[in-house]
Design brief:
mainly alpha, Arc Repressor Mutant, subunit A, transmembrane helix, membrane, HTH_AraC-typ_CS, Homeodomain-like_sf
Amino acid sequence: MTTLYFNLNDVILILSIGLSIVLALSQPLLSTKLAISKYLLSGFFVSIALADIGILLIWNEHLPSSDTVDALTPYFYAPAMLLKGPLLVLYVASITHDDFKLAKADCLHLLPCAFVIGVIAVFGIDSNLLRLDTFGIDSAIYRAVDFIWWFVKITPFVYFAYALYIVRKYHKTVFSHNSSVNEEAIVWLYLLTIAYICSAVWSIMLSVLAVVYRLPLGVTDNYINFILLIALFFYSVSHAQRLTTTKGLNKTESKSNENIDDLIGKIMSGIREQKLYLKPNINVEQFSDMIGLPYRDVSFAINRAFDRNFFEFINTYRVEEAKRYLGDKDCLHMSVMEILLESGFNSKSSFQRFFKRLTGESPTEYRNRVISQTH
């Protein structure tokens, strides 16, 4: 009779391990805005591979084992689980900020790993004990093992939630400082971080169900993580490099002594006389330099006087410029693409989305309506 060494769950784990290793090795070959981004993502994939190897060694009873393997498994499994969160947080920070650098304070992210390794060492926890077979286990050791399982599930959730906070903060900043933003890439980043939060919540829920109702649903974790692994790689290749990055505000920059009316006067001069909104990729720093004001003052004035961010402010004038072209019979020879480029936009999807948001019509609908009314 043939012995089945690997079930479907094990196969998914093995595929995840192999794919994680391949993706980790391939990251240095990819082109990125910041080199640190690909190494952080590579580290994330390595942590997934080590965590999955640990799960396989802990729960597959058919794999050849030894006292050494049983003793070492917790020492790489638990840290690998705990490092996923910090690595994802740092990766998200690196792809959203063009001045990102690792700091000494980032070493604090290693404290949970050091702590759990200390618990493993003090209580002599090995793979057999991690299975929580309560027969013959000292109550103190049982509580220590139980703590480790909860710790390696809850800690990533906290980090994933923090990653979402970084995305949210970045979202506000990027629209306050740029006139052209890749909104699709931001939406994907939101979905990805939310998906990781949901996966962590699901993992915690499964642990609760296992304790309360003895439901063996933990294997579904592996399927979800495998899907997220593929999604993260897809994002890193297709969207991450197209994110509009931001940089930290220069807090030492002095503010001008001009009042709000003077600030608005200079801002509107840049709009009406210099027509700076026609520059496709202009950001608040460039705009401020051209009108001779500190960019913190420009952001403040636009937000205070117009109740909108820089992105909305500039694109409102671009839409007005586009409306002028679309409503002019002498410009009927111009395509919508030509008009959006002449108006300062550089993306058809962004142009159509913002145009409809302000007018309630698509550019084509607006053109047909206005032209027909002039006949």
